[in-house]
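Posting here for the record, re: pyridoxal-5'-phosphate.
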Amino acid sequence: MADISIPTNLLPADGRFGCGPSKVRSEQLSFLASLQPGVLGTSHRQAPVKDLVGSVRSGLLDLFRAPEGYEILLANGGATTFWDSAAHSLVEKRSQHLAFGEFGAKFGKATGAAPFLEEPDVRSAEAGSRSQAEAVAGIDVYAYPHNETSTGVMAPVVRVAGDAGALTVVDATSAAGGIDFDASQTDVYYFSPQKNFASDGGIWFALVSPAAIERIERVTTSGRYIPETLNLAGAVENSRKNQTLNTPALATLAMMDEQVRWINEQGGLAWASARTAESSHVLYDWAERTAVATPFVSDPNHRSQVVVTIDFDESVDAAALSTALRANGIVDTEPYRKLGRNQLRVATFTAIEPDDVRALTASIDYVLERLS
Ligand SMILES: *Cc1c(COP(=O)(O)O)cnc(C)c1O
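Prediction output follows.
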């Protein structure tokens, strides 16, 4: 393959289409710079940093149109750490997990490995499709991803009508801030900031209901051994004081704060959701009309508006395609590493301009004509 040079007029203004860490907006960096020296490099136990945390927490409550009594929790560690926290201090006896991709399955593995819990009820589905939650007696947590980042499948946020007191716990890592939903349908809506919030990794956030807070209190006083860094009761106590158990990344919080403010100012979650729907449709429509490409997710109702996966027929080497794009500054279009498909995966997160997604399709067309 000779080097393919995409003409500048076809290229997107910003070539970052990865699923996380994802495109950071320049305005977020300007905001970060404005916190020097007042906030950056200062104590996380003093007002300037606590006010920043408070601003993120109240901005998220606005963004999610949180029902009365819901709170925002945060702690160090990211969504992966949240799974261990939930296994230790949220699941009482037995959880049900929808596993229709890597991330949903991983939470099921975390509860499956916990010796103090019963074997979880894991409902799997082929990559590219999705499984269905079902009320089962004795289940106290129903868990599923709002958006399965590994495959580009999204699921509606709806409560599972199980036993009284059962909680609905949604992994919103790649959905939060990019897909509209009704918060009253969940008890825990948790996520990391490096996807639609265009920030950096290392912290998890969660919108939690009063029922979830009550559950955390019950499980954490049950006598079970819970490591301090994983104890959600500590996250409740510290978050209410706008702090974390140990030192958080201030730059991550700052970039998060600016992104939440930007989305709220633009029109909130409804605006963000319309924008990601527009961007993703550009790609799905392109794949439908391109002979060598097909949307990987066959049911249009399951197709994600924030992570688009496109399969290529065998006449196209998708790995060579993403390599050629990368050489032209269009990065991170490779598929999820463990999926092993002849595919491109493209994030259409809120920070990404729909016009840049249009330019991406023009750039792909240009490369396709010259690959072989
Ligand atoms: C990225 C991602 C995770 C993992 O997030 P970390 O911050 O790396 O722990 C979990 N779930 C989903 C759906 C994701 O997209």
